[in-house]
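Same chain as my last thread, 202 residues:
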Amino acid sequence: MKTIKFVGLFLAVGLIAAFTVKPVAGYKVGDVATDFSLKNVNNKMVSLKDIKDAKGYIVVFTCNHCPYAVAYEDRIVALDAKYKKLGYPVVAINPNNPEKQKDDSFAKMQQRAKEKKFTFPYLLDDGQKIYPQYGATKTPHVYLLQKTAKGNVVKYIGAIDDNYEDAKAVKTKYVENAVDALLKNKEVPVKETKAIGCSIKA
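reply #2:
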């Protein structure tokens, strides 16, 4: 009798979990990404539609504390410097819960942006509502969007390049190659790669 009760309880818990845990699906290449309104480090709200003359956006989920994100900071700044003037600015979003990771608080974000002289918006995903929509799992995790008549279409998802440890040893620059292809009205050569970084702190 005890065994039957235990099995019944186990099945009941399993059913509850099945109905309450929502898997993170996120966007796939070809999907249309919805816009958002998030607070920037200058305390102003930023939406993609607010960025004038953009042909698309390099959306990067990143943060302060993660060693992988820190290793890519200069490369993210370089991406913005190279592509903003060509219509593909960087939009950085911190997806982490500051209560779980104190180094990713809004005040620390402001400090980091000032120290590194970020030339792009650095936004807080307050309430962690945006990163699940995208399906981001790591910091950094890149979503390259192209503005079209249908909306902001996802053209690339994944890593910035193939070597987080050493920028000088990079062989394939995934994001740069993808943006360059879009600027030439060509197909993105590699549409998806595995993002390498720290797990997002929910």
